[in-house]
Write a structure and sequence with these properties.
It contains twelve helices and 20 strands. By secondary structure, it is an alpha/beta fold. The protein has two domains: 158 residues, Beta Barrel (Lyase, Ornithine Decarboxylase, Chain A, domain 1); 170 residues, Alanine racemase (TIM Barrel). The N and C termini lie far apart (74 Å). The structure holds pyridoxal-5'-phosphate.
Length: 427
C-alpha cells in the first residue's frame, strides 16, 4: 500500500500531481509521502500490540530530517550506525533514550558522543569494542547501557551483500563468544548489561529466518538468565523486505504475529529495527527524459537521474519499477528499453530490458520504491549535485532538502591547499 497512484492518467503523490513537483523543484527529485510513512509505522506498531515493544527506525535507510522528525512525532525510537546519524536524530527531535547504536566499527569519539547524549542501548559487536566502550565510559564516569549483537548463523536468503547474520559475516559475535562476553561485562561497574540483539540481513521475504534467529537469541537469553544474567530486552533487528518487482514479502501484520509467537512468554521488552519496510515504497525518484537513442535493436532512454542518485541497480543489480508519470496513449506500442543515466559507467542504469512505450524528450518517469537506500546512498560521482528531496502531505509539499549547487560540490576544497610542514627542515 502506498499513496503514489494515478488520477486521470497522471501519477500523484497523495493529492499532488507529480509534474507540479518537478515543475517547482526540478529533477531528479526524491518525493516522499507523509501518509505512507505514517501508515507503515502505525501498521507495524499495531502488529506488535500486546508486546512491550519499541520500534527503532533504522536511520540509514532514509536519514532526511523531515522523515526522522515525522517518526519522532509518532513516538518512534531510532537505530543508528554512526554518530552522524545520532546528530541527525537529535536535530530532528528524536528521544536519545530510544536510540540503539549498532555497527562493527564505532570510534571512541562516537561512543563518547552516544554516552554523552544518553542513548538507550549500545549494541556491542566484539570483545575489543567492549573493552574500548568500558574505557570510554570510565573516562566519562558513566555506565554504558549495552546489549551484545549476536550472530545467530541464519541464512536470510537475500542478496549476499545484505546478509549479515551468517557465521562468517563481520557483524556481531558468535553465541559462544557472547556467553563469555556477558560474563565479563556484568563484572564491570561502567557497563550496564541491558539486552541482547540480532540483525540478520535486509530485504528478507520469508518469515522463517526471522523466527529461527529470534528463537536462537531467545534461547541464549534464557540460558543467561539461568546463569544469573537477566536481560531486560531482546532486539530482533530489522530486515523485512518490500516489493520491488515480484517479491511477496510477509505483511507487517504477519511479521508481527510471527515475532509475537516466537517470543510468547518472553517477559522483557522487545526492540525492532525496521528500515526499508517503513520507507521503501513511501518514496519515488522523479526523473526527466533527456534523449531516446537507438542503436540497432537497442533503445536507450537517457534520463537525468543516474547511479549517483540511486545506486541500488548498479550495486545489487536491483529492480525498480520505472513508469511514465503521464500514462501513455492507449494502444501505443511498447518496446524493450534500457533506462540509463548520464554517468560514465556501463553499470549506470536504472532499469534494463524493460517494456516501455518509448517516451518523448522532456517526459517524466517515476522510479518507484526509491524511499529506502535511495538518497541515503547517493553521491556526487561525476560531480553531479545531489538531488532535492520533497515531503508531500495531502495537497501540500515542502522542500525537505534543497538540490545541491555547484558551490556545494567544492565546499571544503582548495585549489592550492595551504601547506604545513611535516618533516623537519634539513640544516
Ligand atoms: C540496516 C540495519 C537495519 C535495517 O535494515 P532494513 O533491512 O532496512 O530493515 C536494522 N538494524 C541494523 C543493525 C542495521 O544495520
Amino acid at each position: 500500500m502506498n499513496h503514489f497512484q494515478p488520477r486521470r492518467g497522471v501519477l500523484h503523490a497523495e493529492d499532488v500531481p507529480l509534474p507540479a513537483l518537478a515543475q517547482a523543484w526540478g529533477t531528479p527529485l526524491f518525493v516522499y509521502s507523509t501518509a505512507t510513512l505514517t501508515r507503515h509505522w502505525k501498521v507495524l506498531q499495531a502488529s506488535l500490540r500486546g508486546l512491550d515493544h519499541t520500534v527503532c527506525y533504522a536511520v540509514k535507510a532514509n536519514s532526511n530530517l523531515a522523515v526522522l522528525s515525522l517518526f519522532a512525532r509518532l513516538g518512534s525510537g531510532f537505530d543508528i550506525v554512526s554518530a552522524g546519524e545520532l546528530y541527525r536524530v537529535l536535530k530532528a527531535g528524536g528521544d536519545p533514550r530510544r536510540v540503539v547504536f549498532s555497527g562493527v566499527g564505532k570510534r571512541d569519539d562516537e561512543l563518547a558522543f552516544a554516552l554523552d547524549a544518553g542513548v538507550g542501548t549500545i549494541n556491542v559487536e566484539s570483545g575489543p569494542e567492549l573493552l574500548r566502550l568500558a574505557a570510554v565510559a570510565r573516562r566519562l564516569q558513566v555506565r554504558a547501557p549495552i546489549a551484545f549483537r549476536v550472530n545467530p548463523d541464519v541464512d536470510p536468503k537475500t542478496h549476499p551483500y545484505i546478509a549479515t547474520g551468517l557465521r562468517d559475516s563481520k557483524f556481531g559475535v558468535t553465541v559462544g563468544e557472547a556467553r563469555r562476553l556477558y560474563a565479563q561485562a556484568v563484572t564491570d561497574p561502567h557497563l550496564d548489561v541491558r539486552g541482547i540483539a540480532c540483525h540478520i540481513g535486509s530485504q528478507i521475504t520469508t518469515l522463517r529466518p526471522f523466527v529461527d534467529a529470534v528463537g536462537r537469541v531467545r534461547r541464549l537469553a534464557e540460558e543467561l538468565a539461568r546463569a544469573g544474567v537477566r536481560l531486560r530486552h531482546l532486539d530482533v533487528g530489522g530486515g523485512l523486505g518490500v516489493t520491488y518487482h515480484d517479491e511477496a514479502p510477509p505483511s507487517p501484520a504477519q511479521y508481527g504475529a510471527a515475532i509475537k509467537k516466537a517470543l510468547a512468554g518472553w517477559e522483557g521488552e522487545v526492540h525492532l529495527e525496521p528500515g526499508r519496510v517503513l520507507v521503501g515504497n513511501a518514496g519515488v525518484l522523479l526523473t526527466r527524459v533527456l534523449y531516446v537513442k537507438r542503436h540497432g535493436k537497442k533503445t536507450f532512454v537517457v534520463v537525468d537521474a543516474a547511479m549517483n542518485d540511486l545506486v541500488r541497480p548498479a550495486f545489487y543489480d536491483a529492480w525498480h519499477d520505472v513508469v511514465p508519470v503521464v500514462a501513455s496513449a492507449r494502444g501505443a506500442r511498447a518496446v524493450t528499453c534500457d533506462v540509463v543515466g548520464p554517468v560514465c559507467e556501463s553499470s549506470d542504469f536504472l532499469a534494463r530490458g524493460r517494456r516501455l512505450v518509448p517516451p518523448a524528450e522532456g517526459d517524466l518517469l517515476c522510479v518507484r520504491t526509491a524511499g529506502a537506500y535511495g538518497f541515503a546512498m547517493s553521491s556526487n560521482y561525476n560531480s553531479r549535485p545531489r538531488a532535492a528531496e520533497v515531503l508531500v502531505d495531502g495537497g501540500e509539499a515542502g522542500l525537505a532538502r534543497a538540490r545541491e549547487t555547484y558551490p556545494d560540490l567544492v565546499r571544503g576544497e582548495a585549489a592550492r591547499p595551504r601547506r604545513r610542514r611535516f618533516q623537519p627542515r634539513r640544516r
